[in-house]
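I am writing to request your help with a piece of structural work I have in hand. A protein sequence and the structure tokens that stand for its backbone fold form the material at issue. Please examine both parts with care and let me know of anything in them that strikes you as inconsistent. The record follows directly beneath this note.
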Amino acid sequence: MKDMHYDMGVLVWALMFLRLYLKHKYPDPV
């Protein structure tokens, strides 16, 4: 259970980082 929770945390962090990266790369998404 602990490992699963850790993986979810990493996944959420990766998604947030990806969103910030895309926001900087494409400031005006359609």
About this structure: The helical segments are 2-25. The radius of gyration is 13 Å. Residues 1-30 form one domain. The chain has one helix and no strands.
